[in-house]
Amino acid sequence: MNDEPRDHTDVLSGLPADRYIDRELSWLDFNQRVLELAEDASTPVLERANFLAIFAANLDEFFMVRVAGLRRRIVTGLAVPTNVGRAPTDVLANINRRAYELQLRHAECFRGQVQPALAEAGIKIVDWEQLDDADREILTDYYEQRIYPVLMPLAVDPAHPFPYISGRALNLSIRVRNPNTDKIEFARLKVPQMIPRYVRVDGRESVDDVRFIPLEELIANQLDGLFPGMEVIDHHVFRVTRNEDVEIEEDETENLIQALEKELLRRRFGPPIRLEISDDMDEATLDLLVREFDIDEQQVYTLPAPLDLSGLFALTRVARPDLKFKPHIPVTHPQFRVNTPSDKLDTFSAIARREVLVHHPYESFATSVQAFVEQAATDPDVLAIKQTLYRTSGDSPIVASLIKAAEAGKQVLALVEVKARFDEEANITWARKLEQAGVHVVYGLVGLKTHCKLVHVIREEGGRLAHYCHIGTGNYNPKTSRIYEDFGLFTSSPEVGRDVTKLFNVLSGYAIETDYDRLLVAPLQLRSGLLERIEREAEHARAGRPSGIRLKGNSMVDEAIIDALYRASQAGVPIDVWMRGICSIRAEVPGLSDTIRVRSVLGRYLEHSRIYSFENGGEREVFIGSADLMHRNLDRRIEVLVRLDERDHLERISRFFDYAFSDDVSSWRMLPDGSWHRTVTNEAGEPLPDLQDLVMQDRTEARRARRAR
């Protein structure tokens, strides 16, 4: 957000010039909300450790992509888009200052809160000094058998240039003295990434009372054996984050896969963006690192050990269910339920009877999406399957089904988005496996990422072709479907079937299509379709008809959409904005956004669904789909929203929003100054219910009610 608001207005729009919150600082506010979950003593302690790890992993990606991109544009003199009217260097300085404050708070949360709470629960993270001789003997044996052989200390001297330091790896900087010459030398030692970050001290300990030592701590206390004949003076931990964004000029390359593979190789050697050092590092070592990495003071983050708290992901695998969230068991959607275990699910019959709206992970992905694709692969009446794949798991049953379908002689088209960030290599591997099995693999349109979530099954029924479609808000990934909140619509509507047929022809061929019935498709019509509907709500409000807008997504930064919402608010339209992450709109600002409420919900599940609801004078229109309100989604990606038509689906979405905006449910609320306030208790000091628990309870109770009938 801006430090000092401006009071002048934008001449063209008539709206205040400071009406947008800076997107990067808004993202840091989001990561602060993740940190607040770790700081919350009412959160189970292993879940607190998990949120600390998520915060660290999030921040790594933020630096690798967003900060790296901003810095690259500043260095190369390219224009830096900013919607807050600040010089790019000022924006970068604010980002670095804010990120550093959060990292210090993050480190203090671990050392001062979570680590002691873990120890009290019987999971201790210990230093070498806390161990007795028997413990040290066990660990020394482990070190000599499992760690020592793979270590590679690298000297730095005139004969040995400063080595390449890979991004995100932990390293030890080591100073040693040669007793013969009294000369001090420098060496670097990479902490092996294939060895568990937290080493169990004694495997004979019970799981209810277990100790771990950080790997770098264990190695640091065995350095004498790595430098025989030398005197180890001191050692320090450091870590570098590099620019790992991938940029491809597709219109200048003939082979996308080859170009992408070259770019992935280049990613490993991207320029340093952030240097994290332990707070005990000496000036001589720091000067050497700053000089060799060619970075400035602003890029150095001095932190208390341990560095890289994403390593805490490993501790969350400790078998202590009493220290984790109480499990939610996904239910099977009632339309996909069979009467007895021996009955075979027929997804086509279920969808043909009525459209099905599933909500993951509350409702099972395995018994809905996965079952649908698996049945399509083996059904003799299915002639063709078309599917988009943006991210999927390494052992994906979805991909296995597509391969099985192709091997059975069906027409199978897979649109694999090989440019999905940080999944590029996995997607290239899957694309080649699919091609080898006879699947028609395409990579979408030049210059556009294909981000929409679609399955299209064509089935012969009684001499005619029937279309069965799934349009979702999330990826076809069975693993993330258990932790990502998403909606998906199954339909046999001929109207939707025609729309999806047209769209796949656009994606795999040379068609240019803008005429859809129940779909809104980016980049050609989605932005205009949303803007038209926002203005329509304003017209309804001015005419005294029912109006209202409810939006849910991951991020909102698009200025045209935000300005349209401001104008609708000034016309009196009630507007609810539910964003998990970045949110550049300002809420409840007098004269600007009086009727706009903004909420954020974080918890055990990652809120990932995108929903667009318009009251429309009493004839409510609701869309779900893949698009967030960002420039890239609206202008540089193939995105799809589908309109929901079933009345109970509209009511279910409305109830979902009611939960999120209720004062009786825990959430974060944006205040008029752009800050976020978390409400976790009511006026009596009693804890408020968690939205995700409420939704799970809603699904479970609905299942019980149907069973009772």
Total number of strands: 27
* Quaternary structure of the protein: single chain
Number of helical regions? 17
The total tally of domains equals: 3
The average pLDDT is 89
CATH secondary-structure class of the largest domain: Alpha Beta
* Known CATH architecture of the largest domain: 2-Layer Sandwich
Helix content: 25-40%
CATH topology of the largest domain: polyphosphate kinase like
Contiguous runs where pLDDT drops below 50 for at least 5 residues: 1-9, 250-254
| Major beta-sheet overview | 10 strands, mixed
Strand percentage lies at 15-25%
Instruction: Give the overall silhouette.
Output: globular
Helix vs. strand class = alpha/beta
Distance between the termini: 53 Å
CA radius of gyration is 27 Å
Specify the CATH homologous superfamily of the largest domain: Polyphosphate kinase middle domain
Q: What is this structure, in a nutshell?
A:
GO terms for molecular function: ATP binding; metal ion binding; polyphosphate kinase activity. With 709 residues, the chain is of the alpha/beta class. 36% of the residues lie in helices and 21% in strands.
